[in-house]
Design brief:
Blueprint (H helix, E strand, L loop, with lengths): L3 H7 L4 H8 L3 H8 L7 H11 L3 H4 L4 E3 L6 E3 L7 H8 L1
Antiparallel strand pairs: 1-2
Helix pairs in contact: 2-3
Bound molecules: zinc ion.
Length: 90
């Protein structure tokens, strides 16, 4: 689930206000918030600039690629890469 609704409420904006800021219709914004559609790249950039958050955060993506070993991990469960932790523990 994306975080557009959560970020909008934190910013104290209603749907109409945010839709106007981004330059889309209120129904488009509503369908993003419901997860029915995803914003296109242009709109993702606008939203991430508007809320000052990363696009991954905005979209609620939780999979991260480890910079060291290239392995994927879930940031909801692991703060750091479990593969590297196993290696460093020997
Ligand atoms: Zn790793």
């Amino acid at each position: 689930m994306n975080r557009i609704l959560e970020l909008r409420e934190t910013a104290g904006l209603n749907q109409a206000e945010l839709a106007e800021k981004i330059g889309v219709s209120q129904s488009t914004l509503a369908s993003w918030e419901l997860g029915e559609t995803e914003p296109d790249v242009d709109n993702m950039v606008k939203l991430s600039n508007c809320f000052d958050v990363a696009i991954d955060y905005l979209l609620g993506r939780t999979n991260r690629t480890c910079l060291f070993c290239g392995g994927m991990y879930d940031t909801r469960e692991d703060i750091s890469c479990p593969h590297c932790l196993v290696e460093s523990r020997g």
